[in-house]
Amino acid sequence: GELRSSGQLRLLATRVPQDQLPPSVVEAILQEVDTKQRLTRLQTLVEDAVRFAVGVGGGAVKAMDGSTLFHRYATEVLLMDPDLWRRTATPSISEHVRLRHLQALLLALEDLSADTSPLERVVLRYREPLDPDQVAALQQAAPRFDLGALLFHLREFMTEQLIRDSWPAEEDLKEYLSYSSDLLADAEWFLGHFPEGLQLRHAYATYKTLRSGEGGVGVGGSGGGGL
User: What superkingdom does the record give (predicted)?
Assistant: First the structure.
């Protein structure tokens, strides 16, 4: 969408470090979004919050804690009418979603609005399973990651680059992720700890494995689980 093409969704994490929502919270939110009209209004609200965070409100957001509830941010900073918030948001969003979850919330809503998840468009050659040693290496390294940032950039890479047979499956996954993201290219937690030997063929399985470790806390995370 427009937020991706303009780079605003990526820039958000430089203003407020992003984290994942626990799967149980994501599931509850998706169940509570009960009409297409509500989904559209909610997507617009989150997109407006992201634009403000990286645009006009960027300076203010830098000084804000990512643990600020989205509900408070919308009503006190964006000056959204509380009655309109109640008609747009859901109980789970009001209770659980914080500024550090805006990226995760927007991606979950994007999946809900699409006929199929964008991840399901990743071609089969990039969906090969990990062997037990590779799974163990990822699980061992995961506590050192900024998991929210890694999952976001890995997802973006897959949905932009791996939906066609453009790249040899045996190419190095770490190297391609570094090329695709300036943040990862400069991040010591990624360069120093992302397991060697993973290939593009393992991209989808790597994402799923990291998402499944919902209890882990990365170096830049705040304790949230996988999206």
Answer: Eukaryota
